[in-house]
Every structure is written in structure tokens, then in C-alpha cells.
Write a structure and sequence with these properties.
With 432 residues, the chain is mainly beta. The protein has 2 domains: 80-89 and 255-426, no CATH class; 94-243, Lipocalin, CATH 2.40.128. The protein is built from 5 helices and 29 strands. The longest helix has 15 residues, at 9-23. The protein is elongated and about 70 Å long.
């Protein structure tokens, strides 16, 4: 049991509030699966709040008001366990801010100085640049005597809803004047950052990623071309991570959406990792391989359309991913993709499926249809048993789904499934 630790000062304030509410107001708040229920002064309970693990945009000091508004919104925020937060074979990208600790920019923005000596030692000099704001150091790559620097600044005269970010890239030798390689303008919210992927296997390629804040809990990620002459937009997400899903030494890129794509239950679940999109290496960039191209992307409006029998532009009966996560179900060190999926139709046509990545595409390992009632709406985690690892699927009665509110209340239950002999079979159900 433990708190969900956060990164920014705003999140720290909220964490302390959560701590007080949990252990002063309800010391028995945590159950055996690691979920928390907090007795908040609203009509809805709010489980343990966890902000995305990606701290790349936290340095922008996003407003606390949007965070604290959750206490009055009745939104359910869930602390994901295991299946969402413990993807096998992951490798963290290096936060660019950590590569420039101990360095600073001179007042005239012409010199990068080391702060660990007195007087400050010159690392590298920069050419004159016409800017509308003071730049900040975003990151640095060392290649022997050669240095690659990433600076950024925001045009404060640009539209506050669509800030103009400038990312400048310089190269040079230590102690000399660097040359400008490129200056990119990207648009979004007030925050930006860079991160670096340095894979251990020579068969994989390093990467530079630029993150532009979009909202309080999501951003747009770009990949920088090896020659630094172009950027390509990859995705918008609440977080992303790298994982060698097929154990071939090349890391896949997983982008996470903070909401399930649930068209059945009105629970308003909100967290960090619920809906994954998977990208595989394609030359110096990436291409999306999951969900399949004929599966519709998340659209919260589909819930309204189904309930009110409204027509949509999406063909009836197509597959969609509700939630998904990764786990090593077979104990071989690999990563299975476990998906709770549905079909776009009035009556539930849900399935639990397990996929594996091979040759840069996902293939079905096993799939089983789920009963129309109760309605499945979440993957609750992985449970060890004497027969192997069981996948817990949380379900709710139709009445509970329609009522929404707290999904921990009466009317919900876990149903367990186990992968055995290439089949997904029901295990002993667990009542919540």
C-alpha cells in the first residue's frame, strides 16, 4: 500500500490532501488490490488520484485550479495496478532536463556555463539569435568532444490557446562557438520538453522526442529526424513509454490515453494508463500497429449515440478497444497485450482477447466472448493463482452502468479468466 507520488508542486498539494482524507478520514480505505476510496465532500467517492508518470511537462507549473476542480466534478480517478503500470521489458527515455543539470545560460544567451566551478567555466558559445523571449535549456547530448544542445522559448505574444514554441538545435565542440542546426516552431499549450531514447542494442536507433503540452494531462509528441532538419508528429497522449514487447532488442513505443473507451458504463473513469496505442520502428521513425486501422479511435460521444439510438459515421458492428494492458501471462519474459474489446452495436458484444507482437504486427493468442450481462468495463489487474496468472475483468449490472457514479459500490464484481493451452477459460469468480 502507498500513495501515488506526483511530480509538480500542484500535484504535491493534492497528494497531501489525499493523504489526509485517506488516513485521517478512512484508515481502512485501501483494499487488497491496491485501490483507494476517499470520503470526499461530494456525492461521489474518488479513488486514489494518480497523475501520469510522464513528468516531461510538469515544469510548466500547470494551474492548480484544474486539478482541484476534480473534487467537485464527481470524476472517478483510478490508481492502476500491474496490468496498466507494469509493462514488461520497458526502458525509460532520458528526460532532457536531467542532462543539463548544473548548466545555465548567460544573461545575453550567448554562452552555456557550467555552474560547478567558480568562475563559471564556458561549455560552449552560441551565435546571436533574434528571440522574443529568454530561452531555456531543454537538453544536451554529448558525443565525445561534440555537443548537441536543445534550447526552447515561447512567443508570449502568440495566442494563449495555441502558444508558439521555438526549439533551437545547436552543434559544436566544447569551448568553441556552436552552429545553429535548425529552429522549429511548434504550437500547443504553455509547456514543452525534450527526451532522448538511448537503446542498449545496436540494432535499435536512438531517438529525440519533443513534447508540447496540449492540456493539463496530455500533450503532443514529435520525433526529430536524425539530420535534425524535420520533425514528425507521432501522437497525442497522457503518457508514453518504450518497451521491447517481442524481445528482439528493438523497443516499441506505447502511447497511453488516460480514459477507457467505454461506450456502455457512465463511470467517468480517468487515470494515466488505460488505452494503449503501439508504434513499431519504421526506419528512423515509427508507425502505428495497434489498435488496427479499422478500429475506431476513442470517442466519448459514442456512449450518447448508443444510448439514444443515434446514428454515427462509424459502421455498426466494428471492433473497438475499451481498455488494454500488458503482462507476461506465460512466464517466458515476453509481453502479452490483454484487451477488453466490444463491438459498436446497441447490445454488448464484448470479448476478452490476448495478443502477441511478432514481425511488427499483433496476432491473436486467445479470445473468448463475454456474457452480455453483467457488462465488462475494466481490466482490474492480474492475480496469481495455483494454476497460473488470472486476468481480472470488472463487470457491472446494466442498472449500475446506467447510474454511473462510484464503480466500487454494490452492483460490480470481478470475473477471472486464465490463459491455458491457447484458450482463455473462466476461473473462479471473485466478488467485490
Amino acid at each position: 500500500m502507498g500513495l501515488c507520488f506526483s511530480q509538480s508542486p500542484c500535484d504535491l498539494i493534492l497528494t497531501l490532501v489525499v493523504w489526509h482524507l485517506t488516513f485521517v478520514g478512512n484508515p481502512e480505505a485501501c483494499d487488497v488490490n491496491g485501490w483507494m476510496l476517499l470520503p470526499l465532500p461530494t456525492t461521489s467517492s474518488l479513488p486514489c488520484i494518480r497523475w501520469p508518470r510522464n513528468a516531461r511537462l510538469d515544469s510548466t507549473m500547470r494551474p492548480c485550479a484544474s486539478i482541484l476542480a476534480l473534487f467537485a466534478a464527481g470524476v472517478v480517478v483510478l490508481c492502476q495496478i500491474r496490468i496498466y503500470d507494469e509493462t514488461p521489458n520497458t526502458r525509460a527515455a532520458l528526460d532532457g532536463a536531467k542532462t543539463v543539470v548544473g548548466y545555465r545560460i548567460s544573461a545575453d544567451a550567448r554562452t552555456i556555463l557550467g555552474a560547478d566551478s567558480s568562475p563559471a567555466k564556458v561549455l560552449i558559445r552560441l551565435p546571436f539569435m533574434h528571440r522574443k523571449a529568454a530561452p531555456q535549456l531543454l537538453g544536451m547530448l554529448n558525443r565525445g568532444a561534440s555537443i548537441e544542445l536543445f534550447l526552447g522559448w515561447v512567443d508570449l505574444e502568440s495566442d494563449p490557446g495555441n502558444f508558439e514554441h521555438h526549439i533551437e538545435i545547436f552543434r559544436g565542440q566544447r569551448g568553441t562557438e556552436a552552429a545553429l542546426v535548425h529552429d522549429f516552431a511548434l504550437y500547443g499549450g504553455p509547456g514543452m520538453g525534450v527526451s532522448f531514447l538511448e537503446p542498449p542494442d545496436a540494432g535499435d536507433a536512438p531517438g529525440v522526442f519533443i513534447d508540447i503540452q496540449g492540456g493539463s494531462y496530455w500533450g503532443t509528441t514529435y520525433i526529430l529526424a536524425p539530420d535534425r532538419q524535420s520533425v514528425a508528429e507521432l501522437f497525442t497522449s497522457s503518457d508514453y513509454e518504450f518497451a521491447d514487447l517481442d524481445r528482439d532488442g528493438v523497443y516499441e513505443l506505447i502511447a497511453w490515453n488516460r480514459r477507457p473507451f467505454d461506450v456502455r458504463c457512465d463511470f467517468g473513469i480517468f487515470g494515466g494508463h488505460f488505452y494503449p496505442e503501439v508504434f513499431v520502428r519504421a526506419g528512423s521513425s515509427y508507425r502505428k500497429v495497434w489498435p488496427p486501422p479499422d478500429w475506431p479511435p476513442p470517442d466519448l460521444g459514442l456512449n450518447y449515440h448508443l444510448r439514444n439510438r443515434k446514428t454515427t459515421d462509424i459502421p455498426s458492428g466494428v471492433n473497438l478497444q475499451i481498455v488494454a494492458g500488458f503482462a507476461d501471462l506465460e512466464g517466458d519474459g515476453g509481453a502479452e497485450l490483454i484487451v477488453l474489446q466490444d463491438r459498436l452495436r446497441e447490445e454488448p458484444a464484448q470479448a476478452l482477447a490476448v495478443y502477441r507482437l511478432a514481425n511488427k504486427s499483433f496476432h491473436v493468442v486467445a479470445q473468448t466472448s463475454l456474457p452480455a450481462q453483467p457488462i465488462a468495463y475494466l481490466l482490474d489487474g492480474i492475480r496469481d493463482s495455483s494454476e497460473g496468472k488470472e486476468v481480472l475483468v470488472r463487470t457491472a449490472t446494466p442498472a449500475k452502468c446506467e447510474a454511473g457514479g462510484d464503480p466500487k459500490a454494490d452492483g460490480t464484481a470481478d470475473v477471472a479468466y486464465i490463459l491455458r493451452g491457447g484458450r482463455l477459460l473462466p476461473a473462479q469468480p471473485q466478488k467485490r
